[in-house]
Amino acid sequence: MSTNRTFTMIKPDAVENGHIGGILEKISSAGFKIVAMKYTQLSTRDAEAFYAVHSERPFFGELVEFMTRGPIVAAILEKDNAVEDFRALIGATNPAEAAEGTIRKLFATSIGENAVHGSDSDENAAIEGAFHFSGREIF
Ligand code: GDP
C-alpha cells in the first residue's frame, strides 16, 4: 500500500455521542479523501487482535471492552503525508493534553474514550487497513 494512506476508526464513544458527522467534517476539511469506509462493530476477538501490541498493558481489558461495546466507523484516508498529518489532526492520546482544534480536544472525553484511532506508522496503516477492508472495498 502506498505511504499516503492512513487508517482511522471513529470509536464507540464518539458514535454514541453523535459525533460521526462532526468528525467526518473535520477529516474532509483537513484535505483527507475517504478511499474506504464502513459502519461496523468489533467482536472481542477483533479488538484483541487489533490491539495485540497493547496486550500486556494494564488497561488492555478496559480497552477491549470499550472498543466492542457499540458500533464504530472504520475508514482508510488518503492525503500526502497521511499518517503524520492525521496524528496532528487528532491530537494527543489524552484529550486533556490535545491541542486546541484537534479532534480529540473537540470530541473526546478521556484517555481511554478518546473518540478516534489514527495509525502511528505507514506499516501499521497498511496492516490496519487490511484488517478491516478487502481490496475491492478500497476505491
Ligand atoms: P494512540 O496511538 O494515541 O491511540 O494511543 P496508544 O497507542 O498509546 O493507545 C491505544 C489506545 O489505548 C488509546 O487510543 C486509548 O483508547 C487506549 N489507552 C491508552 N492509554 C490508556 C489508559 O491509560 N487507560 C485506558 N483505559 N485506555 C488507554
TrEMBL record:
Q: Tell me one GO biological process term.
A: UTP biosynthetic process
Cofactor(s) demanded: Mg(2+)
Indicate whether Transferase appears among the record's keywords. Answer: yes
Keyword Iron listed? The answer is no
User: At which positions is ATP bound?
Assistant: 11, 59, 87, 93, 104, 114
PANTHER family in the cross-refs? NUCLEOSIDE DIPHOSPHATE KINASE, NUCLEOSIDE DIPHOSPHATE KINASE DDB_G0292928-RELATED
- Protein name per UniProt: Nucleoside diphosphate kinase
UniProt organism field: Arenibacter nanhaiticus
